[in-house]
From TrEMBL:
Pfam families for the chain: DUF7704
High-level lineage: Eukaryota, Fungi, Dikarya, Ascomycota, Pezizomycotina
Organism of derivation: Sporothrix stenoceras
InterPro entries: DUF7704
Protein keywords: Membrane, Transmembrane, Transmembrane helix
Superkingdom in the source lineage: Eukaryota
Protein name listed in UniProt: DUF7704 domain-containing protein
TM segment ranges: 21-39, 65-86, 98-124, 136-159
PANTHER family tied to this protein: CHROMOSOME 1, WHOLE GENOME SHOTGUN SEQUENCE, EXPERA DOMAIN-CONTAINING PROTEIN
Domain DUF7704 per the UniProt entry, residue ranges: 15-155
């Protein structure tokens, strides 16, 4: 294959830059930071998610620590998939789509958990009650969530198998 053919093939990346920026760079960083937070200071995480309405029970902290370890493990999985797996297969849009479908299941549970932490969707949706921490959680969660939804729906992405396979070969 000639050098110009290879250059032309790699110039037209099947995954648009904005998706790669949000899902290969920003979110893995946020996910890893969230994992570190729940591993090192679960009380701070609990306080952030509940607007300081629930204190981490110091006397029972060790008994509940496993839940935060599991949560952190889930975030490490997101960070690994987005920073390593999807970079290893940058042209396989079908793989990206399938992984994002699974991640959206986790996103749905996470979003519902955020609302539960505050007392339900009505309380969560009242923006006049939002703290700086609520806005931080929102702005570190919403863009990757929206990017995954748009990607799965095919906004700006071509899922044709021929293009995906041809790109992998180049």
């Amino acid at each position: 294959m000639s050098k110009t053919t290879t250059s032309a093939a790699t110039a037209a990346h099947p995954v648009p830059f904005l998706y790669r920026l949000i899902l290969n760079t920003l979110e893995p960083f946020f996910a890893a930071a969230g994992a570190i937070m729940v591993f090192r200071d679960p009380g701070s995480y609990l306080s952030t998610m509940t607007r300081h309405s629930i204190a981490y029970p110091a006397h029972q902290g060790d008994a509940a620590a496993f839940v935060y370890t599991q949560l952190g493990g889930g975030w490490l999985y997101f960070a690994f998939v987005e920073a390593v797996v999807l970079r290893t297969y940058p042209n396989d849009t079908r793989l990206w789509r399938y992984l994002f479908m699974g991640m959206l299941l986790s996103d749905a549970a996470y979003a519902h958990g955020c609302a539960q932490a505050l007392g339900g969707w009505a309380v969560w949706a009242d923006l006049t009650l939002w703290t700086a921490e609520d806005w931080t959680v929102f702005w570190t969660t919403a863009p990757p969530l929206l990017a995954r939804i748009c990607f799965v729906l095919g906004v700006g992405v071509d899922f044709s198998s021929k293009k995906s396979v041809d790109k992998k070969r180049n």
